[in-house]
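Task 17 of the worksheet. Students: predict the tertiary structure of the chain below and write it out as structure tokens. Keep your answer in the requested format; marks are given for formatting as well as content.
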Amino acid sequence: AKEIIEIAKKIEQKVDVVKVEKMEATPDLLIEKETMVILNQEELKQIEEGKNTNEILAKKQEEIKVKEEEIIKKIESIASKKELKSENEIKNYYNKLEVITLRNGRKINGAVIAQTGDILVIHTTKGVIRVKKDEVESQEFK
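Model answer:
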């Protein structure tokens, strides 16, 4: 029994403990993963034969739009739970801080945490907001 205890102690001294941390997926990765659409065999066959191509593509584009909206809501929900009350907290959390100037002259300070389709999702000190890309005049890092 003593020998087993001694062996166990020696093993403990020689083994390095590896700490595994769960990495948080970035919003961009979530969007990419969640908005993938798949063509089934029949759809592929029809496209190869030149049949119903526009209808199939329109259907897939609609699927992507629905999925984009779902993932944007998910990203907004996750980000909203992180109460970042200062620009410094936003910069430290996202490793960036931006000034988004809208066409109407309004300036938004925050971090663009996701963009898809025609929408930017921005985490500001007042919360998470959406802005249409066509409303953006410029976007600069601060």
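Marker's comment: The first strand starts at residue 98 and ends at 102. Residues 5 and 11 are 10 Å apart (CA to CA).
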